[in-house]
Structures are given as structure tokens and as C-alpha cells.
Amino acid sequence: MKKIINRENALFLAFAAGLIATLGSLYFSEIKGYEPCSLCWYQRILMYPFTIILAIAIIKKDYEIAIYSTVLSLIGACISTYHVLIQKVPFFTDKAASCGRIPCTGDYINWFGFITIPMLALIAFVIILVCSIYVLKTNKGESK
């Protein structure tokens, strides 16, 4: 059976998701002037390194990097999920703690009624997570 996607492509897809998310967050803050809240900063702290570490992994064909990208993307996905919940679910919004000068419950964009900046980050983290898990599973299959 022929594979639809290989390790190289999965690693590149994870890199592309991280790069697009990084450039998107810089666009929203530096060009559109949207000031990030505290939770957005935590998501950025986890997202930005993907552009560097995954680019190096692609160049060196180092598939073991997927261990680290899996952990970082899982943590980022958890933070993004919580952020989406406090923006969109009234129960969480009412219980949300104050998180600095910019409220984490605010949403600068609201495309189609549910796509916000934290939702975009969540999508990127999930893409990176799925690709990283695929690379890990493929690595185990290749080493046997």
C-alpha cells in the first residue's frame, strides 16, 4: 500500500503551519495593531520556536524532533483550547480571571461567528501535533 504522505512532507506541513501561525500573529499585532493578551503571549512563546526547530529538522532530516514538537504543540493546544473556551462559552467567560491590560475574553476577529485568533492558533497547534505524531509513528515503523 502506497503512503499518501511521508515523514518529510509531514514535517514540512508542521513547519508550514508554524510559520503561517507566526506570520499571522505578527500581522495581527504589528500591522493591524491588535495588542495580544496574556494567553496570546503564552501561545506565541510556544508557537514561534516551531519555525526554527522544524526548519532545522527538515534540513538535517532529523525526525526525532517530533518528540519535542509533540510536547510543545500539546501544551499550546491546551492553552488555545482554554482561551477559545473563555471567549466563546458563557460558563467559562463568567469564571475567567482578569489577565492583564487586555482581557483574554475579547476577540479582535470573529469570522463566521467562531473563528478567533486563539482558534487559529489551536488549528495550527493541532496540525503540528498530528504531523508530529505521524512522524513519530512512521519513525517507529522505519526502525523495525
TrEMBL record:
Family: Belongs to the DsbB family. BdbC subfamily.
Lineage, broadest ranks: Bacteria, Bacillati, Bacillota, Bacilli, Bacillales
Keywords (A to Z) from UniProt: Cell membrane, Chaperone, Disulfide bond, Electron transport, Membrane, Oxidoreductase, Redox-active center, Transmembrane, Transmembrane helix, Transport
Function per UniProt: Required for disulfide bond formation in some proteins.
Membrane topology, from the record: Multi-pass membrane protein
Keyword Methyltransferase: no
Positions of disulphide bridges: C37-C40
A single BP term in Gene Ontology: protein folding
Keyword Ribonucleoprotein: no
Gene Ontology cellular component list: plasma membrane
Superkingdom of origin: Bacteria
Organism, as annotated: Pradoshia eiseniae
Listed name of the protein: Probable disulfide formation protein
Residues passing through the membrane, by range: 12-29, 41-59, 66-85, 111-136
A single MF term (Gene Ontology): protein-disulfide reductase activity
Subcellular location, record wording: Cell membrane; Membrane
Pfam families: DsbB
